[in-house]
Write the structure tokens for this entry.
Amino acid sequence: MPRIALEPRFQVEHLSILDSDGNLDAALEPKLADKDLRSLYRSMRLARRLDERMVRLQRQGRIGTFAPTKGQEASQMGSIFTLRPTDWMVPSFRETAAMIWRGWPIEKLLLFFAGHLEGGQPAPDQHDLPITIPVATQLPHAVGLAYAAQYRGDDVVVMAYFGDGATSEGDFHEALNFAGVWHVPVVFVCQNNQWAISVPLKKQTHSRTIAQKALAYGLPGIQVDGNDVLAVYAAAREAVDRARAGDGPTLIECVTYRLGVHTTADDPTKYRSDAEVAMWEQKDPLTRFKAYLEKRNLLEESLEQQVDEEIAAAIRRFEATPTPDPVTMFDHVYAELPPDLAAQRDAMAASDPAVPARQDAALTAQPGATPMRGQRLTRR
Amino acid sequence: MAKLNMVKALNQALFQEMERDGDVLVLGEDVGVDGGVFRVTDDLQRTYGSQRVIDSPLAEAAIIGTAVGMALYGLKPICEIQFSGFAFQCFHQIENHCARYRMRSQGRFHIPIVIRMPYGGGVRALEHHSESEEQFYAHIPGLKMVIPSGPRNARALLAAAIRDPDPVIFFEAKSLYHAAKEEVPDESEAMTIGQAQVAREGDALTLIAYGAMLRVALEAADVLRDEDRVAVEVIDLLTISPLDRETLVASVKKTGRAVVVHEAPRSFGPGAEIAASIMDGAFLSLEAPIRRVTAHDVPFVGFAREKANVPDVPRVVSAARETLAF
């Protein structure tokens, strides 16, 4: 009775197409139309500019705490670009680039981070879940959506986003296990940005890769250079096509880096070095994609100005949004308000609108409002 | 009309609702081939197939989590958590998502889910198989918490829970599963969630109970009638949340005295909310402090000591006599 190696032997691939110096592996280059390449770059640029602008808005007290995207634009755009509007996106809380691509108006995202749940309301025909904050808990939802789509016989793929920290949560493992057993059309996109607030990847997992965690659940897992939009696109294309063909779920690990703060309440100088950040800045997803587009003569001259104008107009719309009456907080608890809750609502409605309790929905923070602890300017 | 025990009545509700609505599906551990460890889902898979009656992997969080996803898509999942003592493994999915999705999405989504769980003691079971945890769910805005007390109302409340557009936590007392049979009409019935029932009318004192404690309250009322010559009113709560304060207050306005009975530990339990609601609505009618007869504030004690912990008829009678004599 010898020890024998079981088949299949497991293997995890790493995919890179466009390296940080802009060198292209032409054999792997995905077939993307010029307009798609332009569109991808535009979305990445818009997300980067918006991100920078939102950090300033937060410092000025015009929005609350938010989680910047800077550095992860390729991981998000390369993957979300493969979805159809009828497919479903299940975000975590750092998917600004992907959400804008899916049609979330910028002013809505600003409203969300200004404390208004109206900003988290997907449009009636939009197949997106709202931002989910408890880490990894959205992943079983993605599996359930995919199961339901399959049950109804709909041609739908579900793409779910999460980070490296999420892979330590039970919900991640349960979701992958259920997805494997049920063989449902889900693509799990892990943005491994190296840090879960202050905890680095090496303290998060002893695995060599996150991609290999898929293998334990009988799913394919692939690691890609998450700062290489072409590689992310190629891997996501393959995974989405496989899901759509009825061949089940995939885990994609995008190796990327959070160039900014975890959230605007975080100070990363406390836990990571400038040298490390500088090293990753050399791998910026926008720089290499820009170089690639330059070589193909696809760069738009006025792009920066266009996206800045788009952002400025959205901020104006956001700040012009009327302040809702707090009494609307009772509108979406149940389909029908139970009597005691109706009494609570009526008591609030009968109170003087001039009293402070009725004013707490003010759209933006009052000047001089106490910031959340740690909410200060950092070096990045 | 047929005489059914609670297991058969619940099973019938599942059959009737699955027949009515193709969006209703069932998932949980052992609910398919095995028909559930208490047989509540018996024969459903044989009739509706394994895609609609799903033997899920053993993971409470993903049972509820995937059901949330199904509900977001428009299906109406009924989840079975094998014992309520295991629901802490999925508590985050219930609190963070089932209860909040309507609010978070400002009405774009709602979660028409039913989470069935056997609860309560009296069946000589191990730890995590005998507890009562309704207070946790009753405290969460956005959920409804229902506990039937007999075969007929169990069937009618389960039907109502399945048709309800909001998430319903549905507790089934294990000690009632096979306790008694009741005449149940053939055609489907649905009761209104959020409405208590006066199980017995009286004028001397109001006994408030639900689930397996209803029988204890009714037997205590018998003793008080026979030995003390008083007519005790017994209220069967049926829904813990939203609480039917109106029925409670109306009764205590008539009787002036109230005793609440529940299997859950006392502190911060449903009895506290019930007492506060009666104080709010019937303070001037009260002739005595509102008493609570409950389990003690101790963790699971083992079934060898369970009888000393879970309320029984003598404890309820004694509390009622003290209240009457106050």
Notes: Chain A touches chain B through 41 residues (CB under 8 Å). Chain A is about 40% helix and 10% strand.
